[in-house]
C-alpha cells in the first residue's frame, strides 16, 4: 500500500491542498483578499487530484495489476469419477479453496480492467480479478441436461470498479476497456494447471513433471 503510486499521490496532494488552504485562510484573516483568492485555484486543484486518486485507490482494491502476463492461480484437479472432479485453487497470496465440479472441463472466468495510458504513466496498469470457477461439458446435450456447478471466486469489495464501468459511461475516459474473459480445459486425469492472465485474456498452462 505504501508503495502504491495512487496512495502516494493521494497523500502528497492532500497535504499540499491542506497547506494551501491554511495559507488562504490566514490571508483572509489578515484581510489580504487578493492573495487569498490567488491560492483558491491551486488549493481546489490539489484537493481534487487527491480525491480522484483516493477514489481510484478504493475502486482498484481487490484487483491485481499486471503489464504482460502473470499467474492468477494454480489449480490442482483430481479426477473422481466420470464427469466429476475436485479442483483445489491456490491464489498468489496463498489463500486456498476446494470446489467439487461436474463436467468434462474446468472453466474459469475473470474481469479485466484496462486503464487509460495516462494512468499507466503514474503506475496504474491493467488489473484483473478471477470471478468464477465451474465445469463445462463437451457434449451440448450434457450441457443442457446434466447437473452444472459454478462457484464464486471474486471477493467482496467496497467499490466494484468493473460493475461501475459497465453501468456508467462517466468512467469511460479512465478505462480504455473493461471486459470479461474465460478459459476452459479438458480434465481427463489428475493435473496441475496454471491459470495465466495477459492483456488479451485468460489462458491455461499444464505443468509437466
Give the SSE map.
Blueprint: H1 5-29, H2 33-59, E1 64-65, E2 69-81, E3 84-90, E4 96-102, E5 105-115, H3 117-120, E6 127-136, H4 140-145, E7 150-152, H5 161-167, E8 175-186, E9 191-198, E10 201-206
Determine the structural class based on helices, strands and strand pairing: alpha+beta
- How many structural domains does the protein architecture include? 2
Shape: elongated
**Residue windows where pLDDT falls under 50 for at least 5 positions:** none
Distance between the termini: 37 Å
How large is the share of residues in beta strands? Answer: 35-45%
**Percent helix among the residues?**
25-40%
Number of helices: 5
- Rg over CA atoms, rounded to whole Å, is 24 Å
> Tell me about the biggest sheet?
5 strands, antiparallel
Mean pLDDT score, rounded? 81
Tally of strands: 10
Q: Summarize the helix and strand pattern as letters.
A: HHEEEEEHEHEHEEE
Outline the structure in words.
The chain is 33% helix and 38% strand. The protein is built from five helices and ten strands. Strands 1, 5, 6, 7 and 8 form a five-stranded antiparallel β-sheet that branches. A hairpin with a 2-residue loop joins strand 9 and strand 10 (201-206). The chain is elongated and about 85 Å long. The model has no long low-confidence stretch (mean pLDDT 81).
Concise summary:
By secondary structure, the chain is α+β, with helices and mostly antiparallel strands.
Describe this protein with a few key phrases.
209 residues; alpha+beta; 33% helix; five-stranded antiparallel β-sheet; 10 strands
Amino acid at each position: 500500500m505504501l508503495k502504491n503510486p495512487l496512495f502516494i499521490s493521494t497523500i502528497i496532494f492532500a497535504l499540499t491542498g491542506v497547506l494551501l488552504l491554511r495559507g488562504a485562510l490566514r490571508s483572509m484573516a489578515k484581510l489580504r483578499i487578493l492573495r487569498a483568492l490567488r491560492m483558491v485555484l491551486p488549493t481546489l486543484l490539489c484537493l481534487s487530484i487527491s480525491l480522484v486518486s483516493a477514489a481510484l485507490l478504493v475502486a482498484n482494491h481487490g484487483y491485481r495489476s499486471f503489464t504482460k502476463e502473470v499467474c492468477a492461480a494454480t489449480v490442482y484437479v483430481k479426477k473422481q469419477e466420470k464427469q466429476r472432479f475436485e479442483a483445489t485453487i491456490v491464489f498468489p497470496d496463498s489463500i486456498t479453496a476446494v470446489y467439487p465440479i461436474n463436467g468434462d472441463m474446468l472453466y474459469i472466468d475473470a474481469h479485466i480492467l484496462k486503464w487509460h495510458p495516462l494512468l499507466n504513466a503514474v503506475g496504474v496498469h491493467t488489473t484483473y480479478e478471477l470471478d468464477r470457477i465451474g465445469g463445462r461439458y463437451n457434449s451440448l446435450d450434457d450441457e443442457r441436461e446434466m447437473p452444472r456447478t459454478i462457484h464464486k471466486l471474486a471477493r467482496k469489495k467496497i467499490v466494484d470498479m468493473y460493475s461501475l464501468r459497465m453501468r456508467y459511461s462517466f468512467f469511460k475516459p479512465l478505462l480504455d476497456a473493461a471486459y470479461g474473459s474465460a478459459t476452459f480445459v479438458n480434465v481427463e486425469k489428475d493435473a496441475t494447471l496454471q491459470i495465466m492472465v495477459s492483456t488479451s485474456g485468460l489462458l491455461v498452462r499444464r505443468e509437466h513433471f
